[in-house]
Design goal:
heterodimer, A: 477 residues, alpha/beta, Glucose Oxidase, domain 1, 3 domains, eight-stranded mixed β-sheet, 19% helix, globular, B: 127 residues, alpha+beta, four-stranded mixed β-sheet, 2 helices
């Protein structure tokens, strides 16, 4: 990030926008956006703009502030606190060039332990939560609870990701833009407490004190809380591959109302042999989702054509078409988009598609969109694909004796462990800042606090769309 | 009922810190799907490529504790408590976005070449 010499505290010009609850209704919180920009820039940028997507601002600065206020209002309406939360916010030049940029950053400005009424002694809490729990503002001198900076130049200059600016509307019609409200909801979520202050790389705690977050992280393979582990053990769990679950009662209770059953490929039949059983699959963003009513048929491989290994990137030969007609097609990943493969096998009469990966690794999903795809598709690992192709080696032209069912496992939630606890993001590689302090990417539907923003998020922070609010309630909100 | 208002606020200025590597910060990354043009989460492989296969250790931060009245303890994280949201455009025109931890990781991520979506992402891939 470039040093910004223009940052100055403009207390006299500070503008606060708040969400308040009236008496007699569900408790809410006041979230105050403190405008830290100087005149003429950031929130005060006078550049005329046209109102967009429910954002009535007529200057760039006004639209930015309205979008901030809108996101703060959503959080304010869902949280309960008698102590206003102050967000020190500004739009300013942040790191960027023609191909990349920092969109923004936010987080807790201070952390506290052993404050009056602290539920746990010797435990770090973000200052906004500490104030709520104490019943008064624990900060000294009214410093902000949350600090937020967003990129004022994004998409507006040739040297700052031109053409890909923030969408400032409030209606999620962001098109090719970046939905600022969603980014704000996510980043403010971190500032409110959706994060550990323990180093997820080294496992070291700040000054040897755990974060309130850490009490709810559970090593689901040893059933031990993160706070009971050594730093090395904590670091290992952060890259364990689904080895950490959130052990909070509110999230676990809400998960069944938010998460869908996990998708499953079941293999059986007279010729299945050792391949019989259930397989972990990656879902497709195109075609119908897998459902309780499984799609079942003979699994038939698409054989190679013109030297390619059965990738189904071109219209199928008559022999291949005959094989998969009315059956479930097994194709190889590669060369073309997954959605195109689905179109190709669907056109040949397949009732479902299984894509076998062409590289080693964990199972992953398939993105892409094609409204004309009407058959379900899943993706399996390369190793599973090899095993299934071996089982299919002996077959007739129209049947294999290996039966595949594309359905769901109603006993498991997508994004939860076997006991229904929601998984946290712990990929098998270290992802700075993404691990531990986000929900798993395996959640279905996508959640606000996954490590990346997905286009299908709804601006909701609570069930039945999302689990962020229950998690914040678990830690004390 | 939710009400919205605007009020003037006078706050004590937080100390402005120089842009330095910091620990404890987080951010976000998205990618633009090459086939649909929409933003989406990177797959594991894309995320790995975005951040590089080499583990980027956060720069150490010296945390200073202040003990207040009644024994309460405070650490000011300042900008080191931030979570960064990064976006990069790949050669195929797609955008790749991710939450990354700290200014150090954010800067590192930006200096790494973005990959087109034939190369990969963390949970969903297009082909």
């Amino acid at each position: 990030m470039k040093p910004n010499k223009s940052i100055r505290w403009m207390a006299a010009l500070a503008l606060a926008c708040s969400a308040l609850a009236s008496a007699g209704t569900q408790a809410a919180a006041t979230i105050t956006i403190v405008n830290a920009n100087e005149p003429g820039v950031g929130f005060n940028d006078p550049t005329p703009v046209t109102p967009v997507g429910g954002n009535s601002g007529t200057t760039l600065g006004a639209q930015r502030l309205i979008a901030f206020q809108y996101a703060a209002d959503i959080w304010g309406a869902n949280l309960a606190s008698d102590v206003p939360v102050r967000v020190d916010a500004a739009f300013e030049p942040l790191d960027c060039d023609a191909t990349g940029a920092v969109l923004g950053a936010a987080g807790a400005y201070e952390i506290y332990s052993d404050f009056p009424n602290a539920p746990r002694a010797t435990t770090w809490y973000p200052s906004a939560l500490a104030s709520k729990l104490a019943g008064f503002d624990v900060t000294y001198g009214q410093v902000p609870h949350i600090f937020a900076r967003f990129n004022a130049r994004l998409g507006l200059f040739p040297d700052c990701l031109p053409g890909s600016g923030f969408y400032l509307g409030l209606d999620r019609q962001f098109g090719a833009g970046i939905d600022l409200v969603t980014v704000l909801l996510h980043e403010l979520g971190h500032g409110l407490g959706f994060q550990t202050f323990t180093d997820d790389f080294s496992g070291e705690q700040i000054l040897g004190v755990p974060s309130i977050w850490d009490y709810y992280l559970l090593d689901n393979r040893t059933n031990r809380s993160w706070v009971t582990l050594t730093p090395a053990q904590r670091a290992a769990t952060a890259v364990s591959g689904n080895g950490l679950s959130w052990n909070g009662p509110r999230v676990t209770a809400a998960a069944p109302s938010v998460l869908a059953p996990v998708s499953r490929l079941r293999i059986e039949g007279t010729a299945a042999g050792a391949t019989a059983g259930d397989y972990q699959v990656g879902d497709a963003s195109f075609g119908p989702p897998l459902a309780t009513q499984a799609v079942t048929g003979q699994l038939m491989p698409v054989s190679g054509q013109s030297g390619e290994p059965g990738q189904a990137c071109m219209p199928l030969s008559p022999v291949n078409a005959l094989a998969i007609r009315g059956n479930i097609a097994l194709v190889s990943r590669g060369t073309c988009a997954f959605a195109l493969k689905a179109r190709v096998v669907q056109a040949a009469g397949a009732i479902g598609m299984v894509v076998a990966d062409n590289t080693d690794g964990d199972v992953a999903g398939m993105s892409g969109a094609d409204p004309l795809v009407t058959i379900p598709s899943v993706r399996i690992t390369q190793a599973d694909g090899v095993a299934l192709r071996t089982a299919l080696a002996t077959r007739s032209r129209t049947a294999s004796g290996v039966v595949a069912s594309l359905g769901v496992d109603t006993s498991r939630l997508a994004g939860a462990d076997a006991r229904g606890r929601v998984l946290m993001y712990t990929p098998t590689f270290y992802s700075p800042g993404s691990t531990v302090s986000h929900f798993t990417t395996e959640a279905k539907p996508n959640l606000l606090m996954e490590p990346s923003i997905n286009s299908d998020l709804t601006h909701a922070v609570r069930p039945p769309q999302d689990l962020t609010l229950p998690l914040l309630q678990d830690i004390g909100w | 009922m939710l009400a919205t208002c605007c009020v003037a606020a006078t706050l004590t200025p937080p100390p402005v810190q120089a842009a330095q590597p910091a620990a404890g910060q987080k951010g976000m990354v998205v990618v633009r799907d090459p086939h649909t043009g929409t933003l989406r989460a990177p797959t594991a492989d894309e995320a790995r490529a975005l951040l590089g296969n080499t583990v980027q250790r956060k720069a150490p931060v010296q945390h200073v504790e202040t003990v207040g009245p009644g024994g309460s303890r405070k650490v000011q994280l300042g900008r080191s408590g931030l979570v960064y949201n990064i976006v990069k455009r790949a050669p195929d025109g797609t955008l790749q976005e991710q939450c990354v931890d700290g200014q150090h990781a954010a800067h590192y991520s930006l200096t790494q070449p973005a990959l087109d979506n034939q190369t990969r992402e963390p949970h969903h891939e297009a082909e």
